[in-house]
Amino acid sequence: MNPYDFARIDWNRPPERRKPIWHHQLIGQGAQHLYSGHLDVDVFAETPIFVSDPRNVPADPKKPAQFMQNKRGEYIIPGSSLKGMLRTVVETLGNGCLTLFDGNYERGDVNYRRDVPQSFQHCESNTHLCIACRTFGMLKERAGGVFLGKINIGDAVAYADNIYKYEPMYTAVLVEPKLHHEAFYLDEERKHIAGRKFYFHHSPDMKPLSAPGLKLFGGRPANRFIQPLDYDTRFHFRVDFTGLEADEFGALLLAIALEENMRHKIGYGKPLGLGSVYLQPTALELVDYSTRYTSPAAGRGKTELQGDAMWNLLYEHIDNFSQQHLVSIAMDDLRRIWLWPPEPGVEYYYPSKRDWFDTSDSRGKRIKDTRNVP
Ligand SMILES: [Zn+2]
């Protein structure tokens, strides 16, 4: 089975864009309620996981590369990775622009920009932003200005008493066919791109795909020697948010909580079966700035929620968001791709080009058809 599939885009519904609420507008927006505060989230590794540290690559090739650590020596998943992952989910489920899509699909062999209608391409003006750009910020400064976004995500730090190390491993070499197989990348009508790419979870009963040793490709290493952290390792991070509108708050909560039988995927080696994680919110603090300034004595307008009270509020916002804004075809796809526990016994690999992509009967076949390709 191909290691990834696409969450479709609803081409009948271009991103809804509007002027973002800026930080200094926390109060005085009439009847509109804005959400500020922070959410604490635990991250459980469900499979081995590896986050590369580009500043700490062992000079000795016999030593495995270690999981990223901060200055205090704690293992971390950087906030920027978490932010990128959550942003992609908000874009996918909340009908955001295609910010991360540059039209070149990774290798630049084929330009699919023509297959993305103008109204879906990344936001250009800071007064006309989609839900993802309003929440997470515009990615680059453009002619239309800049918007920094309204959330901040800290690094996920491993709990010292919940660290488990996986055995050092050489990563398997998965070579994705170089020529793009059009039926993979375009939708059924061959009119638009197929959607946003997500990797399937591998069954936790299987080991991540590895190789017996270092593989050379033209004299250079084609794989890596790494020591992942094992499943059951637990991390914690905090999301701070300021002045979120109701739809932005709902989208953020959905992107974090997803559904009970779904998991996120993060870090290095996703096609190898690394990086399946469970994000579990543990506490929510809301700060109501409108009461904070008018009645300073009344608990400073802070509400702290945990357990059922927290979940009831999270679900209320997630349900409201889902009823009004969810892209249901994208959710159907993501539910299938990020299903947890995954179907047991499925093997993942890129169908080899010679055996499959070049044969006449493979023409027009789609990713689900790769399941039984040898
Ligand atoms: Zn946007």
Features:
8 helices, binds zinc ion, 8-stranded antiparallel beta sheet, 4-stranded mixed beta sheet, alpha+beta, globular, 374 residues, single chain
Describe the structure in your own words:
By secondary structure, this protein is of the alpha+beta class. Helix content is 21%, strand content 19%. The strands form 4 sheets. Strands 2, 4, 5, 6, 13, 14, 15 and 16 form an 8-stranded antiparallel sheet that branches. It has a 4-stranded mixed sheet with strand order 3-12-7-9, with no helix packed on it. A two-stranded antiparallel sheet has the order 1-8. Strand 10 and strand 11 form a beta hairpin. The protein is globular, with a radius of gyration of 22 Å. The protein starts with a strand and ends in a 17-residue tail after the last helix. The relative contact order is 0.24.
Fold blueprint:
Blueprint: E1 4-7, E2 35-45, E3 65-66, E4 76-77, H1 79-94, H2 131-136, E5 151-153, E6 156-158, E7 169-171, H3 182-185, E8 196-199, E9 210-211, E10 216-217, E11 220-221, E12 225-227, E13 234-244, H4 246-257, E14 264-265, E15 276-287, H5 289-294, E16 302-306, H6 307-325, H7 328-337, H8 353-357
Bound molecules: zinc ion.
Zinc ion is lined by residues 96-97, 99, 122-123, 129-130, 132-133.
What is the compact description of this entry?
The protein has helices at 79-94, 131-136, 182-185, 246-257, 289-294, 307-325, 328-337, 353-357, and strands at 4-7, 35-45, 65-66, 76-77, 151-153, 156-158, 169-171, 196-199, 210-211, 216-217, 220-221, 225-227, 234-244, 264-265, 276-287, 302-306. With 374 residues, the protein is an alpha+beta fold.
